[in-house]
Amino acid sequence: MEESAGMSLPPVARAEIVVDLAAIRHNVAVLRELVSTDEAGTGVAMMTVVKADGYGHGMVEAAGAARAGGADWLGVATIDEALALRAGGDSGRVLCWLGVPGEDYAAAVAADVDLTAYSTAELDEIAVGAEQAGRPARLQLKVDTGLSRGGAPEEAWPGVVAAARAGEQAGHWRVTGIWSHFACSDEPDHPANDVQERAFRDALDVADAAGLRPEVRHLANSAAAILRPSSRFDLVRCGLASYGLDPAPGHTRDLGLVPAMTVRASLAMVKSIATGAGVSYGHTWVADHDTTVGLVPVGYGDGVPRHAGNAAETWVAGRRRPVRGRICMDQFLVDLSGDSSGDPAAAGDEVVLFGTGRAGEPTAQDWAEACGTISYEIVTRIGGRFTRRHHDGGDPA
Ligand SMILES: *Cc1c(COP(=O)(O)O)cnc(C)c1O
């Protein structure tokens, strides 16, 4: 019998995303141990970032696994995500960081969510929200140290800090954190990392001089948490690595992280094609030998990148099987040739797009490289008509 990447899983569903919550729990515990014991890392807390539906893994379920693995904080982009965590039963610390004018800050304050402000305009809105909620907000301030994305520009920082201190004294909020975000943490030797860390320390000095005493100062995402101990401060914000994927391919040593997501389907059809047959739209692949192709019933409508055409590989009957021709909206084809013992697979057999890699199947990182993107995008975009199932595979050895 052929070894299957999905061997321990139930019979093949039409097309499903299977998420191993034990892997997330394990990864969070490994990362927490790493950042709190390495070098000067005493007392570093762990935030697991579960935005964008837990990077495609299911936000509430991923959050539960992260808490079980020791996450002190959860991080999300939007207030809606934070409220969904509360609705899902999470009562721990949750930070969100991407508001737009007119957000329902009162609801976020009432739900005990830590908010992030980038500007005095945002502070004004949060003050109104806190008043409506009838209690002080928990407020963090973000400074732009060089990503040029969100956060207060350095020239506006003293004004934001002064307004935050005044609002604290007026009882609108307590300033719980000050933070920033790296541009190039996946390139540890990039000079921007030093520049940003220095700018962050300067920004902290400005806040300190104004009388702010935040609980947590934080700068590092996954790559920086792993590769740059000096950037850990009081808290690290780990997203991708929590799901078992490598945030800085080529730089990260093996930490024993386990990819939590396996994406698989049932082959819809298996057929022989003759030398010279063109495969899929545009005939971008033409069979150069008599072969057998398998029809995979998912496509770009389900988040399978169209760039995977003629580039990515799948796993069927114990072997890597290349994608042939273009990815269509609902389906694509893989080449099942190469077995001496006749057709290696039949309709209804399992095809794994990507998984842990343990049995030899491709990983999300392999798909990212094949598609010219990053594994973040591969796991976050997969969805569409795939069903998603969570299981607990037990703690990885
Ligand atoms: C998404 C995000 C993170 C997590 O980044 P990873 O590289 O996935 O660890 C951390 N901080 C902020 C502000 C983010 O937007």
Structure, explained:
With 397 residues, the protein is of the alpha/beta class. It folds into 2 domains: 21-243, TIM Barrel; 261-391, Lyase, Ornithine Decarboxylase, Chain A, domain 1 (Beta Barrel), CATH 2.40.37. 29% of the residues lie in helices and 23% in strands. It has 11 helices and 19 strands. The strands form 3 sheets. Strands 11-14-17-16-15-18-10-1-19 form a 9-stranded mixed sheet. The chain is elongated, with a radius of gyration of 24 Å. The two termini are 24 Å apart. The mean pLDDT is 95. The structure holds pyridoxal-5'-phosphate.
Evaluate the radius of gyration: 24 Å
Order of helices and strands, N to C? EHEHHEHEHEHEHEHEHEEEEEEEEEEHHE
Ligand names: pyridoxal-5'-phosphate
Number of strands: 19
Shape: elongated
Please identify the top-level CATH class of the largest domain.
Alpha Beta
Number of domains: 2
Question: In summary, what is this structure?
Answer:
Helix content is 29%, strand content 23%.
Helices and strands in order:
Blueprint: E1 15-20, H1 21-37, E2 45-49, H2 51-55, H3 59-69, E3 73-76, H4 79-87, E4 93-96, H5 105-110, E5 114-117, H6 120-133, E6 137-142, H7 157-169, E7 173-179, H8 191-209, E8 216-220, H9 222-227, E9 235-238, E10 261-266, E11 269-273, E12 278-279, E13 285-286, E14 291-296, E15 313-316, E16 319-324, E17 332-335, E18 350-354, H10 364-371, H11 375-381, E19 387-391
Helix pairs in contact: 1-3, 10-11
The structure holds pyridoxal-5'-phosphate.
